[in-house]
Amino acid sequence: MIKAYAAFGPGEALKPFEYDPGVLRASDVEIAVEHCGICHSDLSMLSNSWGITQYPLVPGHEVVGRIVDRGEFVRHLKLGQRVGLGWHSGYCMTCSTCLSGDHNLCADAEPTIVGRHGGFADKVRADAASVVALPDTIAAQSAGPLFCGGITVFNVLLQHNIPSTARVAVIGIGGLGHMALQILKVWGCHVTAFTSSETKKADALKLGADETLNSQQLDASTSVARQFDLILSTVNVGLDWNAYIATLRPKGRLHFVGATLDPLDINVFPLILNQCSVSGSPVGSPASIHTMLDFVARHNIEPVVESYRFDQVNEALARLESGKAHYRVVLSR
Predict the structure, then answer these.
(1) Which whole-number Å values give the CA distances from 67 to 77, 81, 122, in the listed order?
(2) CA–CA separation, 98 vs 25, rounded Å?
(3) Please, are residues 14 and 43 in contact by the beta-carbon 8 Å criterion?
(4) With contact defined as beta carbons under 8 Å apart, do 225 and 206 qualify?
């Protein structure tokens, strides 16, 4: 039996929960969970904001732990090896996107907390193809957020071939944004942080921003018109997107990794006249996660986390929901 914490309805507190995972599949591994980050996606799933939650729900898709069992077909992961598991726990492995290496775009990919139980537990299972070994040089207690938030921002650089000479702006200095600043800085970019919080300006500069701009004063600012090659939006609220598009250079890109549920109100002519793009992307493939881990290990990039025990899970969730977390929340044994 796997011992976990589950919600039994929208808005309900998590309670102890046990379930029988059945016989381990030949391509699966079982991970003893040591740490599990808490993501805003967990909050969205708990409240059924996306309309896809199945209860009881065991959240948790930023897992770090050790392999304690593996199926007979698994060869690349060893018992006792420390690994990470992110948003996806399996792929079809036969569609054109999987065969092209874009497993994260597989139409039949299995999210770790959609229709299955996640990492707020003592153990979790996943297809071995979705599990990535954690380098020894990366601190296990803070690594969980890399497997969702970290790869989400890193994947943008890979998919759009962002050069080190690019001028990049990040909207929102939070769970995603604080990792984006660190990654972009060592990537070589000139980095601007858009934030409405005076208290986060100093943090943004410390994390890697070359400068900060007050997002609430964007309309009044003419100094940043046609300045950025890429604007990375990490927030989940609606903003004046036309004001941000005005700060893009010709052929610039406004890219969404934060899941705002509001429709985008965007004027088309500025996009046409300056050949600009609006785009979005999810987490990355296992190969991209491996590349990201090598990158952050080489450059000593580390998410800033607050730690809670697993039995403090409801307190930890409340901390994240309050918006006061600095900057990610992780459950640890």
Answers:
(1) 8, 5, 12
(2) 20
(3) no
(4) no
Domains of the chain: 2-148+283-332 (3.90.180.10), 151-280 (3.40.50.720)
Q: Are 257 and 145 in contact (CB under 8 A)?
A: no
CA torsion sign for 40, 41, 47, 51 is positive
The segments of the chain whose pLDDT lies below 50 read none
Which string of DSSP letters, residue by residue, matches 131-176? EEEPPTTS-HHHHGGGGTHHHHHHHHHHHTT--TT-EEEEE--STT
Residue 173 backbone zone (phi > 0: left; psi -120 to 50: alpha; other: beta): beta
d(CA 86, CA 64) in angstroms, rounded, equals: 9
pLDDT in tens, 120-153: 999 999 999 999 999 999 999 999 999 999 999 9
> Which tokens sit at 109?
């990919």
Residue-level pLDDT at 111: 98
- pLDDT attached to residue 250: 97
- Three-point CA angle 169, 319, 174, nearest 5°: 5
